[in-house]
Amino acid sequence: MSEPASISTGIAARYATAVFDLAKESKALAALETDIDTLETAVNDSADLRSMLTSPVYSRDDMGKAITALADKLGLSAATRGVLGVMAEHRRLFALPQLLSALRTMIADEKGEVTADVTSATVLTKAQADQLAATLKARIGKTVKLNVAVDEDLIGGLIVKVGSKMIDTSIRSKLAALQNSMKEVG
User: Fold this and answer.
1) Phi and psi (nearest 5°) for 77?
2) 55 in Cβ contact with 25 (< 8 Å)
């Protein structure tokens, strides 16, 4: 991990712990989870917002006003508004994506969930996704939330990542393994 990324992660972890504990004490984890989804969508959809978060050009006051206006427009909870305000005041908004990721992990741990990143060659049907989630739940022992992506280059099969474990049943990887073994033979 690069130094700036580890600094952002460390800063985000401290803010995440604080806002998570506040939300948990006030039984507002569901509202916090909604806020995370809303903010992630806003950050992903707006190049201007991403630029504002990382730009040193904006003053603390400007960042504070902008993030307060954004929080009002998005209808964020008081705990989320508070942490965003403090982050703006301390010029830490650059760590917002890491904060959202850390909060998502904390909420999933609290709910006994894990997230599985699934890459498939074609779009999974609801039945296929449900069956995969059930199979993973049986193996892992926790509720599994699927984060599904499509990569047609896989030709067929799946790549499933849960934590540090990866299962690659894609035809692309099987063809690559066959190609490597053919190179070894001849």
Assistant:
1) -70, 165
2) no
Helices (H), the chain: 3-25, 29-45, 47-54, 60-74, 78-89, 96-111, 126-140, 171-185
What pTM did the predictor assign? 0.73
**pLDDT 10s digits, 22-46:** 999 999 999 999 999 999 999 999 9
User: Do 86 and 122 reside in the same domain of the chain?
Assistant: no
What is the pairing mode between strands 165-168 and 158-162?
Answer: antiparallel
DSSP per-residue codes, 108-158: HHHHTEEEEEEEESSPPPHHHHHHHHHHHHHHHSSEEEEEEEE-GGG-SSE
Element (H, E) at 166: strand 165-168
| Token reading at 133 | 């989630």
Closest CA to 84 of 98, 64, 102: 64
Q: For the chain, what's the residue count?
A: 186
Bigger pLDDT: 26 vs 5: 26
Same domain assignment for residues 151 and 174 = yes
Sequence-ordered list of residues with C-beta below 8 angstroms from that of 185, at least 6 positions apart, any chain: none
CB of 144 within 8 A of CB of 116? yes
Choose one of 109, 143, 168: the last residue of a domain: 109
Domain that holds residue 43: 3-109
